[in-house]
Design goal:
206 residues; alpha/beta; Rossmann fold; seven-stranded parallel sheet; 8 helices; binds adenosine-5'-triphosphate; binds magnesium ion
Length: 206
Amino acid sequence: MIVAVANLKGGTGKTTSAFFLAAALARRGRTLLVDCDPQGSALSWSESAEEDGARLPFNVVGLPTRDVHKKVRGLAEDYRHVVLDTPPGELAIARAALLAADAALVAVSPTAMDLDRVMATLELIAEVEPLNDLTFQVLLTRVRRISREGRDARGVMKEMGLPVMQAEVPQLSFYSDAFGEALGEDLGEYERAAAELLGEKVGGRS
Ligand SMILES: Nc1ncnc2c1ncn2[C@@H]1O[C@H](COP(=O)(O)OP(=O)(O)OP(=O)(O)O)[C@@H](O)[C@H]1O
Ligand SMILES: [Mg+2]
């Protein structure tokens, strides 16, 4: 599967989600993470992990270009799964990444401002969808378990008819501290997100 992690708003958890998801998908088959963001955060994450002597379970390349959809086609042949990390401000690149994908995962952090800003991304997906049969799901990220915002956001988005994943990533230093590190056995909520993405049978929420 080729999955693009998207949200035109910055700082919603795209790169963190792309990295953890790539690790979870790598357990299921050969996986490539494509960094489509000129900021190159996923690439620096992987370089920093490898400088520490770690070997990541997936390959990483940087392709922050408007024709990434053309380049990914060739690359994808060698992989079971490809994860595209997309940039926030670069509409043309984000659009190209969505064009390359079978599925979009919209990483949304459930604050009022983030919910307000998610429409632009949904509109972009709606524009691309007829061209490549793109499916999409919303993944709630950076959810503060102490507040109601996660539950409220889920409710609002369900009312809007948006497909919200059961998996929900809490705001924890476990995820932010992972930047620059190779990931261990525990992939937190992303194991469940990967299973859901692939349509594997997922157990109930504990
Ligand atoms: N579940 C989480 N819990 C705590 N911190 C998180 C979580 N997910 C992401 N973060 C932190 O939030 C910040 C933004 O995350 P990240 O870089 O993944 O977002 P992004 O959408 O890729 O940002 P950009 O739009 O700039 O590319 C980072 O400091 C990251 O470590
Ligand atoms: Mg990013």
